Amino acid sequence: MPEEPSIQEGREAREEKGFVQEMMATFRQEVVDPFVHFAHAPQALWGINLSYLIEGIVYFGILTVLGVYLSEDVGLSDLHSGWVLSLLTGGITAAMLVLGGVADKIGVRKALLAALGLMVGGRFLLAASGTFFEYHLGAGSPMFFCVLAGLFLTVVGYGMYQPASYAGVKEFTNKKTAAMGYAMIYAVMNLGAFFSGLISPPVRKGYGIVGVFWVYVGLTFLAFLTIFFLLSRRAAEAARAQVKLEDEEFAKESGEGKKEEKEKDGENAGSGGEEEEKRSLREPVTLLFGGGLTAVVWSFSPW
User: Fold this and answer.
1) Overall average pLDDT of the 241-260 stretch
2) Residue 5 — very low, low, confident or very high, per pLDDT cuts 50/70/90?
3) Residue 118 and residue 101: Cα distance in Å, rounded?
4) For the segment 33-70, what is each residue's pLDDT rounded down to a tens digit?
5) Pairwise CA distance, residues 125 & 119, whole Å
């Protein structure tokens, strides 16, 4: 016998309410909670993120004007300028493969300071090439060799810097904040690309490309100071202790949760389809938020 319309409408309303509540709970679990946990991240992790933001500004800021500098000021052809840029980006990738394990051997803090020190020196030579040497003499000029020396130091430094930064994220995040930590460090790099588009044009208009290089030398040194002070030995030890304590609490909570789940297995045996449907809600929510966040970041990025 068919149900009364009012009974059927009431059931549909309850199902819809339950669906909305599950969606909100999933959103809170997958989106809100990671940000809440990450907001309480240790000082050492914030130091890494801040330096990574500054490095994003510098890296993309230099990359956007380096080709013009090589062709118009140093005197290389467009073809040879492209070769130098390819050597820079390809050299960084190769350096990461060779130097990626430095942080594991000497520690995250020392690796980051060494890397940023090398990049300060490399970018100083890049800026000095246009300050102390004669322009437009081409590939055999002292200006060009100064550029190559600066880029070499930058490649070596960057080969240590990025792996050490990711090692720091791993070391200074717990099981709840690890995913957000990796997402955040990727996001701040792209945010740096956006800010470089705001910094470079006015500086270039007033002081030329060499002026842009000197600004980025100063910013690289600022990133070095950020690591030196925010990622101090005391801050690193405090971060490790905090992460260890949080992981122990998380393991305890997980153990209690598993125990409760086993106790409810018998009760939920007949509702397996409903539980599977609820779990399936998490995937579209997470994918929707992640895709939307990526689209927003890249829409503001000059890259």
Assistant:
1) 78
2) low
3) 17
4) 556 656 678 899 999 999 999 999 999 999 999 999 99
5) 10
Residue 5 CB neighbour total at 10 angstroms: 8
Q: Is the pLDDT of residue 233 over 90?
A: yes
Structural domains in the chain plus CATH codes: 40-240 (1.20.1250.20)
Please give the angle made by the CA atoms of 243, 245 and 248, to the nearest 5 degrees. 105
pLDDT higher than threshold 90 for residue 235: yes
How many Cβ atoms from other residues are within 10 Å of residue 38's Cβ?
20
Query: Which of helix, strand or coil describes residue 199?
Result: helix
Residue listed under structure tokens 């803090």: 109
Helix, strand, or coil here: 176? coil
C-alpha 276/C-alpha 144 separation (Å) is 63
**Phi and psi of 145, rounded to 5°?**
-65, -30
Q: What CA–CA distance (Å, rounded) separates 159 from 94?
A: 8
- Residue 105: Cβ-neighbour burial (10 angstroms; 0-12, 13-18, 19+): exposed
* Helix and strand numbers, DSSP H then E, in the chain: 10, 0
Is residue 130 a contact partner of residue 209, using CB atoms and an 8 Å limit? yes
Tell me: the pLDDT tens digits for 69-95?
A: 999 999 999 999 999 999 999 999 999
